[in-house]
Write a structure and sequence with these properties.
Protein name: EAL domain-containing protein
Strand content: 15-25%
Largest sheet: 8 strands, mixed, barrel
Organism: Geomonas diazotrophica
Radius of gyration: 21 Å
Bound molecules: ligand C2E, magnesium ion
Number of helices: 12
Strand order of the largest sheet: 1-2-4-5-6-7-8-9
Order of helices and strands: HEEEHHEHHEHHEHEHHEHEH
Keywords: Membrane, Transmembrane, Transmembrane helix
Distance between the termini: 64 Å
Oligomer: single chain
Length: about 290
């Protein structure tokens, strides 16, 4: 019966929308609970010096151990955490945990490493990031020079004057600031000049085919060139092969991160890797890389 069809469709869509809405509300609820129940944890992906292959830094990457879903990766919950504002307490937790760990490792005799922490747009724009960083640094006793914040291009260009003021305040704490996923957002060269930034991280999308595609190579070369000219430290993410690593090192990329070297590691595994590295160094052998 043609007359009844619109109703049927209406019901169909609304049921579907209800489901979607319910899923979202459920996820939001679960994320608040997760925060409360301490279900988030960090993994640490080493970033190596391009010349020596030595671990120079680690990037803290958040995961969620959900009682129902198991291990959940950040892409599945960071957008929702951003939308709902959960990112503010969650981001604070990440910063605090990363700094406490770094301090603990050093106290246990680990050599100084830098710690990179991802900061989401909303966290930068809305939260009092500077105050949080200040408190975390103070409470953890970590050397702020070892802490680097990774921001994305999109979160920086929204309100340029305010951004510059915020970045300057952060720099005043002696932490360093980098742009993550560089090249995928609004890569304006103007802000590179005006923003007090210390490093650029080339997005892994450009690294993927850097050895095969001349266009990608041109982009990577250009980014490295700009970074050098502006005296910025340049890092490549998503390095998966020896060819890529060699190309990037030869082009003057300072540091490399990717599965070719190490996947994101648990704390235990990271400490093991650092111990192995130290033993190798003490044995005097030179390590040239390899999948970890
Ligand atoms: P990102 O900051 O660009 O982090 C790099 C991502 O690339 C990580 O994914 C890492 O596991 C992955 N990766 C590293 N090496 C390779 C490689 O060689 N090949 C490939 N294909 N992938 C590689 P992950 O851990 O799933 O994180 C995804 C994104 O989630 C991060 O991208 C970051 O934007 C966000 N994120 C992670 N932790 C946090 C956090 O604590 N706070 C915020 N705001 N965002 C976070
Ligand atoms: Mg990052
Ligand atoms: Mg990145
Ligand atoms: Mg990325």
């Amino acid at each position: 019966n043609a007359k009844k069809r619109p109703d049927v469709e209406f019901c169909f869509y609304s049921a579907q929308m209800n489901q979607k809405l319910q899923d979202r509300m459920r996820l939001e609820f679960d994320l608040w609970m997760a925060l409360d129940r301490d279900e988030f944890f960090l993994e640490y992906q080493p970033i190596v010096d391009a010349r020596s292959g030595r671990i120079a830094a680690v990037e803290a990457l958040v995961r969620w151990m959900s009682p129902e879903k198991g291990r959940v990766m950040p892409d599945a919950f960071i957008p929702m955490a951003e939308e709902t504002g959960i990112i503010i307490p969650l981001g604070g937790w990440v910063l605090n945990t990363a700094c406490l760990k770094l301090r603990q490792w050093q106290e246990a005799g680990c050599r100084p490493l830098r710690m990179s922490v991802n900061i989401s747009g909303r966290q930068f724009v809305r939260g009092d990031l500077c105050r949080t960083v200040e408190e975390v640094v103070e409470q953890s006793g970590v050397d702020p020079a070892l802490l680097e914040l990774e921001l994305t291009e999109t979160c920086l260009i929204k309100n340029v004057d305010e951004t510059i003021a915020k970045l300057c305040r952060l720099k005043g704490l002696n932490v360093s600031i980098g742009i993550d996923d560089f090249g995928t957002g609004y890569s304006s060269l103007q802000y590179l000049k005006n923003f007090p930034i210390d490093h650029l991280k080339i997005d892994r999308a450009f690294i993927k085919n850097v050895c095969e595609l001349p266009d990608e190579r041109a982009i990577v070369d250009a980014i490295i060139g700009i970074a050098k000219a502006m005296e910025l430290h340049v890092i490549a993410e998503g390095v998966e092969s020896r060819e890529q690593a060699e190309y990037l090192a030869q082009r003057g990329c300072d540091e490399l991160q990717g599965y070719y070297y190490h996947r994101p590691l648990s704390e235990e595994r990271l400490l093991e890797v650092l111990r192995e590295e130290r033993m190798r160094e003490e044995a005097g052998s030179v390590w040239t890389g390899g999948a970890g």
